[in-house]
């Protein structure tokens, strides 16, 4: 409104809805002879409204007449356009994003819904899209090498408008990657007997699940030992000084497969075994299991004696066998290794472990 004050005062101007005298908004410190202005938002389309204004110079106020206006009719949104993927596109992902450009002549925000044109199944909806913006949804888990048709519907809250129907064709499935980069390396030697097997696999198509058939053994071809999704395999403790053969075959969730080369490696040699009889000592005299003094030659034992042995190996000790005159008399599988020997007849004996 235009406001005038004969004293050239500035004014605060308030605006009201005449239908219920509710306050719309105010404009402060308005200069004499200028216009006061507010925004009356969120009105209804094609509706008549009445309003008035009050000017206040801090001492006096004056109310205007009541005025009327009718809002414009609502116009439907334009048809959604500019599809992505473009119409009749090929080699599209099986998990694509689809989007459209939406425009509303009344600058309304829109809810945009996407549909599978084959059966009108709802794909997804995005809400409150501004005029002149793109609406986008994901369309997951499609089939490979298949043509799909779709359309979008823009909704401004009162009117809707449907787009054309567009098409695209998804990419063909690709076989999984050929298993490669073996560890241990092909032809490796001196491999630890507790080594794990690992390789590089995967699939060029995002979202494909890959399983691996593991073939492992000491024969050609090696037998299949496991099917798994991991790219490593624990064969357990292997034999020393043994050539092992292995191969990986991969298969994706669409049934395509790829076979790796056959690889081999050889485990390290059996580490040396050290074993020593620590009791009785050579050229010593023993009485009732106690060493009394050294001798010039031979070893003499009177009464029972503990034959004690020190045995070590990186591979571990499974057992120690005790022989008297080449006859096995005792086996010990726990350290410290020992055997209580009780000679019955005097004579010459040979102790071996």
List the helices and strands and how they pair.
Layout: E1 2-3, E2 11-17, E3 22-30, E4 34-35, E5 48-56, E6 61-63, E7 67-70, E8 81-84, E9 89-92, E10 97-102, E11 110-116, E12 121-129, E13 133-138, E14 147-155, E15 160-162, E16 166-170, E17 180-183, E18 188-191, E19 197-200, E20 210-217, E21 224-228, E22 232-233, E23 243-252, E24 257-259, E25 263-267, E26 274-279, E27 284-287, E28 290-294, E29 300-302, E30 305-312, E31 320-324, E32 327-332, E33 337-341, E34 351-352
Parallel strand pairs: 9-16, 18-25, 27-29
Antiparallel strand pairs: 1-4, 2-3, 2-5, 5-6, 5-7, 8-10, 10-13, 11-12, 11-14, 14-15, 14-16, 17-19, 19-22, 20-21, 20-23, 23-24, 23-25, 26-30, 27-28, 30-33, 31-32, 31-34
Overview of the structural elements:
With 353 residues, the protein is mainly beta. It has four domains: 2-70, no CATH class; 81-170, Immunoglobulin-like (Sandwich); 180-267, Sandwich (Immunoglobulin-like); 274-352, Immunoglobulin-like (Sandwich). It is 0% helix and 50% strand. Strands 9, 11, 12, 14, 15 and 16 form a six-stranded mixed sheet that branches. Strands 18, 20, 21, 23, 24 and 25 form a six-stranded mixed sheet that branches. Strand 14 and strand 15 (160-162) form a beta hairpin. The radius of gyration is 47 Å and the shape is elongated. The mean pLDDT is 96.
